[in-house]
Amino acid sequence: MASTRTRSLLAGGAALLLLCLVVGVLYALGVPPFEEKKGEIKASEVCRTLGSPADSTAALKRVLPDKSSYSFDDDITDRRYDDTDFSYETSCFVNGDGKQLVAATAEMVRYDKADDWVKDVVENHVPASSVKPFPAGDKAIASDRVAAVYLPCTARGFGRHLSVVVQLKQRGSASDGQLREGLISLARNAALFAHDEAKCDAPSKVTS
Fold first, then answer.
1. Cβ(132)–Cβ(143) below 8 Å
2. Which of its termini does the chain have fewer beta carbons within 10 Å around, N or C?
3. How far is CA 16 from the centre of its chain?
C-alpha cells in the first residue's frame, strides 16, 4: 500500500502534468497572455505602386488579418514608348507571416468594350454575383474580395486603358462592407499612381 508521501508525490505530479497541458493548449490557441503580438504596417514600407502611403496604410489596416509581421514586394516594369509600343505593368504583393494576403496589379490593356474587361476580371477572381459597380474610370467593380478599375490612359492612336486589380487573398475580421470599401480605396489609390506614372494623356476619371 502506497505511503502518504508517495500518494502526495503522485498527486503533485498529476497536477503539474495537467497544468502543463492547459498552458500548452492556451499557448497554441493564442489565448492571453500567450497571444501573438500584431505586427505594424508602416507607411514607409508600403508598396509605392499603391499610391498615397497614408491612405493605403489606413486601407490595409482595415482589410488585412492580424499577423505578427508584414512585408511588401513591389515591382514596376521598364516603361517603353515609341510609335508602335506602349507598355506599363506593376505588381505589389503584401505578405503576412510568410503568406500572401493581397495582390495588386496594374497593366496597360485594350478592350473593344469595357464589359469585356469586367468579364475577364470577374472570371479570373470572383463570382459574378458578388461584384457591384462603383464610380471610377470608365468601369469599376468591387466585392469584399476584389476591387478593380478600368481607366483611360492614352487618347492617341488606338486608345489604351489601364487595368488595376486589387485582390484580397486572406481577409481580416472586418465586415463585408468595410472590406469592400477598403479595397476600393486601395484600387483608386493604385489607379491614380499608375495613371500618373504611365504618363497618360487622357483624364483618369478617378478621384482619391
1. yes
2. N
3. 45
